[in-house]
Amino acid sequence: MSRERAAVLDVILLSVQILNGIQLGILLFLVAAGLTLVFGILDVINLAHGALFMVGAYAGAVVAVASGSLALTILVAPAAALVVGVLLDRLVLRFLYDRGHLDQVLATFGLLLFLNEAVRVTFGSAARPFPVPELLDWSVSLPGGASYPAWRIAIIAVGLALALAMFLIIAGTRAGMLVRAASTNAGMLELLGIDIHRLLLGTFGIGAALAGFAGAMAGPIAAIQPGMGDHILILAFVVIVIGGTGSVQGALLGSLLVGLCDTLGRAFLTDGIRLLLPPAAANEIGPAIASMLMYLVMAVVLLVRPEGLLPARRPGR
Amino acid sequence: MTRGGADPLAGRPPVPWICLVLLGGTAIALVLLEAAEHPYYVKLLNRALILALAALALDLVVGVAGLVSLGHAAFLGVGAYTVGIMAEHGLTSGFLQWPVALVASAAVAAVIGWLSLRTRGAHFIMITLAFAQMLFFVAISLSRYGGDDGLTIWTRSEFGALVSLSDRLGLAWVSLGILTLAYLGLRRLERSRFGRVLRGARDNERRVATLGFAVERYRLAAFVLSGTLTGLAGVLLANLTEFVSPAYMSWQRSGELLAMVVLGGLGTLHGAILGAFAFVLLEEALSSLTTHWALLFGPLLVLVVLAGRGGLVGLLAGRWGPK
Amino acid sequence: MSELLGTRGLCKSFGAVTAAADLSIDIRDREIHAVIGPNGAGKTTLLGLLSGELRPDAGRIRLLGRDVTELPVHARAKLGLGRTFQVSSLLPSFSVLENVAIGVQARCRASAGGLRNAATDPVLNGPARDILDRLEIGALAHRPAGALAHGERRLVELAMALAPRPKVLLLDEPLAGLSPAEAERVVSILAALRREAAILLVEHDMDAVFRLADRITVLVYGRAVASGTPKEIREDSAVRRAYLGDD
After folding, report:
1. Hey, is the C-beta of A317 within 8 angstroms of any chain C C-beta?
2. What confidence tier does B7 reach under pLDDT thresholds 50, 70, 90?
3. Which of A190, B36, B72, B226 lies 20 to 30 Å from C45, alpha-carbon distance?
4. Nearest residue, CB atoms, B295 vs list A102, A109, A118
5. Mean pLDDT confidence for A79-104
6. Which residues contact C65 (CB under 8 A, 6 or more apart)?
7. Quick one: pLDDT at residue B316?
8. Which residues pair with A140 in a beta bridge?
């Protein structure tokens, strides 16, 4: 009798962790999608993109505490990120488009240091509270007895909807076609008379808004502190490498892969290793390998398909 | 770029005077400071020497080979953790620790380098960053060795009668000596046939490959050498601070190393040393002004990059160099 | 009459564009084999396939008796394959002498020279100067390669390709953009060169082609429509229609 209960609990645990993995993947996707498009169009590497995620989280936290309104929160957060993003572009980023990667890395690194410190000065280092807005402050009952927060389900649902919208726009509209074309050969588009910089600004703006939105969605479940965008940014880079540059499909695939790998790895790997090794050793090695897992996936992709799993088509070769 | 002259490196003095001034001046300063009993500043200078070694190693990859590595702090960590972990297990002999640390750094650099060099440009940057982050998290998960809090090193590397590193000046002299040797060695390497292929491939990889050079192999060799030297810097750093933590491998540290190289003058080798000294002194000066020194350093970095005048070396050449 | 470089059934497509269709071409010892054809015919693609920058969809390539289809660019170069590019591909921050010296360095073992200063190494500079003198551009030796006029760049490009002493040379429009005097110089150099290296010459300058070539292959849309001696090609009616117009 107890073995059956244990098996049921395991299945519930697994489904909860799978949902968590998908949800992490969706958040990653929202951050990575804008990054990969801008990167694909103009080959600009921007370390400050993660800070927009942080801006969205803080903006959302402030609004959520002040108003408790879901609508206001999810409107203000992306808007705040958009404003900060455009400011960064106008003040610094646009001078970097013609520079090499090293200059871009260092300048955006400087920006990031500044932004993180500015947030620390303004809001302090302690984690800021972000209560879930009332509208979504309940839980869904999963078959088997577990419950899953509605907020997390909303992340998955909204994220997938946004992903679908992006696919439709990119595949179906003229603007989307221009973005796709620009990802493969921006120089050619310029020669054809298309205003690359407006296209870039538009794509960049949407990317910033998405990152801010992701920050707000992550707010209630993550620790809101200065520097919270840094790790997400690095994960987004891993996603881009796995999925392929300039490719939204690749970003989605990569994000889900990374999200699931990381979540499931952390949840089950140590237990799995305990089947093979004595508990003491397993407890040492398990968490270490779990934290390495998605980078190992990245390494495998690099070995087998260095251009990524679903790269935007590039001419030649 | 080249003033109607020949080889960009020819015509330059064998060792730039600025380097002689810096290294010689440091030697003098060490003696004076120790005599005047300012142990804090001796330690500060020592730190500058060690970071200069790391920046020098990075300049080989970034400046000479043209590969932007954003994960070099990982090698600092490998070197430092080797010392820490071995000391934790009672293996305090430097004759044992240091070779193991160098081999470990070389091995990690070989793996990371080989995988990363399968890509180009911005991908290479992202991947080196990712691998360093991976090692950062591995270090955090090593609860046996302090995890997030780090590991205290109770004894510095012991070399018996040869040299005593627990003597403050001893470590400083060793650091200065290693830095000088590394600098001279890398200078020769840069001017050798090997260095020429690296520089050529930075200019035009396609052409160099078409001539018959296996560019990837040259770059991997440079990357491994660089990683090993950085690991050595990590060993020295662990000895200096008598502490090691995952923060040694943070991406911020990788970014700082890059900043040192560029601030000093990319690809000039001595610029890396200059940049490291400037950074350490700047960090010291700014943090005595305010704990929020990043508010000042960040924009400063942005301005220096946007200005693009070739760093401190460029500045000096403009003012005092030949017309 | 031995074949130094040859292909069998080489195919390459870029999406809907066929750049090479079942190409079988060979270059023999001591010959100049010219490849001509309208723009877009696939001539540069052919060179890319031969040098190793492009992988064929099908077919094999043999160099000096070895199957090199899977080998990367540098490996084929090491075996004795040299190449020039349509757009001069030099090392702009190095001097002209150094550009050629690097080519000389390529024929040495990788470990030779150790940590010795490469820029002042007579083992490299001597042969480099010889090549420059041979092409009559010795005066350019210390100029930075990035600051040359077009004609000078083409000559340095050729010098660089000659430096490793290749046995087979792929030349992509070496005469393009040269003044008549410069072109004349290159033509006589190439004519003398055939004793040392087999040459595959892609060119648009028909006078030079018919003067230099021992054999000519005509490429149209990736397909070899005709191949033979200059006399045969001149008299081939299909070729005249497709490419030469009325001669």
Report:
1. yes
2. very low
3. A190
4. A118
5. 90
6. none
7. 67
8. A148
Contacts of C221 (CB under 8 A, 6+ apart): C18, C21, C40, C41, C42
Q: What pLDDT band is residue A5 in, cutting at 50, 70 and 90? A: low
Lowest mean pLDDT among A15-19, A287-291, C8-12, C62-66: A287-291
| Contact (CB<8Å) C94/B203 | yes
State both tokens at B65. Answer: 């080979």
Q: What is the pLDDT of residues B61-100, one digit of tens each?
A: 999 999 999 999 999 999 999 999 999 998 888 899 999 9
Q: Give whole-number Cα distances, B236 to A66, A159, B94, B255, in Å.
A: 51, 48, 11, 20
Contact B127 A302 (CB under 8 A): yes
Q: Mind listing the pLDDT tens digit for each residue in B282-301?
A: 889 888 888 888 888 899 89
pLDDT digits (tens, 9 = 90+) for B155-164: 888 888 788 8
pLDDT at B105: 97
**What average pLDDT does the segment A88-102 reach?**
87
Put simply, the answer to whether C160 touches B207 (Cβ < 8 Å) is yes
**Does the pLDDT value for residue B323 go beyond 50?**
no
Residue B319 exposure: Cα atoms within 13 Å on the Cβ side: 5
DSSP labels for B46-61? HHHHHHHHHHHHHHII
Mean pLDDT, rounded, for A195-213: 85
Q: Which helix (H) or strand (E) holds C218?
A: strand C215-220
**Residue C14 in contact with partner chain A when CB distance is under 8 A:** yes
B252 at interface of A, judged by CB pairs closer than 8 A: yes
Question: Which residues of chain C make contact with A315, given a CB cutoff of 8 A?
Answer: 14
Q: Which of A229, A228, A220, A27 is nearest to A129 (CA)?
A: A220
Nearest chain B alpha carbon to A305 = B118
Residues 6+ apart with CB under 8 A from B83: B97, B98, B101, B153, B157, B234, B235, B238, B239, B244
pLDDT of A4 above 70: no
Which one, of B282, B283, B259, B281, lies nearest residue B271 by Cα? B259
Tokens at C114, concatenated = 């150790």
Do A215 and A60 meet the contact criterion of CB atoms below 8 Å apart? Answer: yes
First to last CA, chain C: 30
Query: Secondary structure of chain B: what % helix, strand, coil (to 5)?
Result: 75, 0, 25
**Residue A227 near residue A116 (C-beta atoms within 8 A):** yes
Cβ proximity of C160 and C99 under 8 Å: yes
Contact list, B252 vs chain A (CB under 8 Å): 113
Is the Cβ pair B295, A292 closer than 8 Å?
no
User: What's the N-to-C CA distance of chain B in angstroms?
Assistant: 13
Instruction: Choose among A45, A110, A298: nearest Cβ to B122.
Output: A45
Res A39 pLDDT > 50: yes
Place of tokens 């003058």: B265
- pTM for this prediction: 0.90
Tell me whether residues C73 and B210 touch, CB distance under 8 A. yes
Which residues in chain B have Cβ-Cβ distances shorter than 8 Å to A110? 259, 297-302, 305
Q: How far is C83 from chain B (nearest CA, A)?
A: 7
Reported confidence tier of residue B322, pLDDT bands at 50, 70, 90: very low
> Residue A107: closest CA among chain B residues belongs to which residue?
B302
Provide the token pair at A300. 């495998």
Sign, CA dihedral B43-B49-B50-B54, equals: positive
Is the pLDDT at A312 greater than 80? The verdict is no
Q: What is the mean pLDDT of residues A160-188?
A: 80
Q: B7: which chain C residues are within 8 Å (Cβ-Cβ)?
A: 94-95, 98, 119
Q: Which of these, B217, B232, B249, B219, lies nearest to B103 by C-alpha position?
A: B232
B240 neighbors B157 (Cβ within 8 angstroms): no
Of B5, B6, B211, the CB nearest to C106: B211
